Amino acid sequence: MAEGAGPDEKRGRRLALWIALPYLSLGIVDALYAGRISDPMWLYWLWDFVEQVLVGFLLLWGILHFAGWRLRDIGIGWPEGRWPALRLLGYAVIATLLLMSSLTDRLTDAMGVVPPVDDDYDYSIVLPEGRGLRILAVLYLCAASSVIEEIFYRGVLWRAISPASSGLARQACFVLVSTAFFGASHTEQGLYGVISTGLWGAMCSVLLLLMRNLWPLIAGHAATNLYQFRYELLG
Question: CA-to-CA distance for 27 and 142, rounded, in angstroms?
Fold first, then answer.
């Protein structure tokens, strides 16, 4: 990531945060329509595509264009050489194993917040009945969330709040801000989902500070989502 904190650098960080704010805030209002937007089903998929893909990539283009950033600046970069690539692959395996573990669920339970008996927000109600379309829908959900959410909730915030040259205080600020936004973006899942997802996002933020690359987190995020949808894929 780029070093330094000159006027142009600070302006780019502020501008990127303002551009990213619509996406960071969209998920917070999901609870207002979750469970109602699924009827008709096509409306749910239209809104999800607009929110996740269309808005996400338009805002990402704005950040790269107006803030003068590159994809590598937010952690989207592939190392040159065999050994750096193998190290990144090892990071991806480590991140996937950690993110797919039940650590955050155990922490949430230890806090005394238990999952609801009846899940009011169940993705199965908006998945197509046909097996082929069902698989495509699950793959879309996993790919869209793992790429776009990691870019905004981790990559953009990391670059804006805690660049490579920053100290521990700014890194801690990045973890807290990323955790708060990511947890709040899952309000449709209730209190348990917000806390559990927030803790999971905190683990992603710490891993990003250690690995300095988004690819391991994207891989771990996608694998975690696929595991959560295993019954929908196999059923």
Answer: 16
